[in-house]
Amino acid sequence: MSSRRNLGPERPESLSRRRLVGRGLVMLCAVLAGCATFSPDPDWDEPHLQRAQTDEQGGVSVSVAVVDDEEARRIYGVNLGQLGIRAVWLKIENTTDEVFHLLPSSLDLDYFSQNEAAYRFHSVFRPSQNERMSEHFHSLAIRKDLRPREVNEGYVLVNRHRGGRYLIVELLGDRSLRRFDYLFTLPDGSFDYESVDLDSLYTQDERRDVGLGDLKRWAENLSCCTTNEDADRFGDPLNLIFVADENHLLAALARSGWVFTERVHPVTVWESIKSFFLGTPEWNFPISPLYAFGRHQDLAMQRPRGSIPQRNHMRVWLSPLIFEGTPVWVGQLSRDIGVKPTWHSPFLVTHVIDPEIDEDRAYLLELLMRAQSVQAFGYVDGVGESTAVAPRRNLGGDPYRTDGERLVLILSDEPVPANEVAPLRWETPKPTDRMAAD
Asked: Do 298 and 167 belong to one domain?
């Protein structure tokens, strides 16, 4: 059991010292990077193009590929990943008579200009190399204006996130705005979604396809909460139901700012401890296992909030249920607001959750609706109510209170404006149509 002693709020001067140290290390890395040799490979065959995803809308075709660190080193001649930069390749073909303009901020609000990125690798000792580097970076950039019956090809530089990335490409035309959506997973970490074979979790006989009324009954009869591995103690409540196939679920979450989490192993433990003490962001911090359906979560995602102690996090399990041909997932969602010491974690600390867990449930709904990812939503009982006077506690001993309802979300693979999202009209199942929860 985790210790319940709270460390209390961190002193501002302590946090400032950590951040100054972190910035100093970043500056040192930049200086060292500037001393590196600039050596692009002119014969590089660009294998990332084989992974490109292509979409077409009304005469405009967009192909996208995310470049890994080694490929970027061969293309750009320096290690972009060392300074947190990721290259994205684009090819845009316009067969219409309309002029379009690429909006790179849709790919990343904080994208890097080519000159900005090149300057990070400049060395005061190599002015001629600096000039060649800037010219080379500039030559790789995609041109933003796309005239009728023209093809543009090149790179945009975005912030480097490990594991996967959801990308939006927006083209502003004279008469229209075109939006293209892509989800990429990258083999550059040890992420929990890679460790489970979803197709092997259930046999065909265990699968069951149901309608809306039976979905409601099934959701109401689920266990209230996650458990520990021995299933003899309750953890955080199971307060989410998703209806979506795997790709659409991951795309909807990634579109809303959620990122993949890494599995717990020595490298991620060290990276997380370093991030905590330096006060620097750690986007893929591991999430500890909780159990449902007899196993730990199939995947976990988080929405970082600038530092390890603060984040939104989610665990998700694939269920044996299918709703009108689409998989049903069960989730646990809460918000981390701090940390406290424990001997029961490889990190020697564990997160403290916000006791108002329903607030994070509402936050998720707002995020997904803002991203136009929700077709319909509703609520069912099943978690069980708890109050400030009589709260329940998770495995870490943190109290929480809730109205006891689960949020059910049917996600859409096409954009749905928030004012067109439908409330679920639950049918009342017949008393004889009871279904097992697991």
From this structure: no
* Upper half-sphere CA count for residue 100 (Cβ side, 13 Å): 29
Look at residue 26 and tell me if it is in a domain.
no
d(CA 309, CA 335): 10
Q: Which residues pair with 332 in a beta bridge?
A: 315
Q: Is the dihedral of CA 433, 245, 198, 189 positive or negative?
A: negative
Q: How far apart are CA 153 and CA 140, in angstroms?
A: 9
Q: pLDDT tens for residues 319-355?
A: 999 999 999 999 999 887 655 555 555 555 565 677 8
Residues 27-38: pLDDT tens digits?
Answer: 555 545 445 689
Percent of the chain with pLDDT over 90: 51
**Cα of 329 vs its chain's centroid, Å:** 17
Residue 172 pairs in a beta bridge with 101, 177
Count H helices and E strands in the chain, helices first: 8, 24
Q: Looking at the structure, do residues 175 and 205 belong to the same domain, yes or no?
A: no
Residues 238 and 340 in one domain: yes
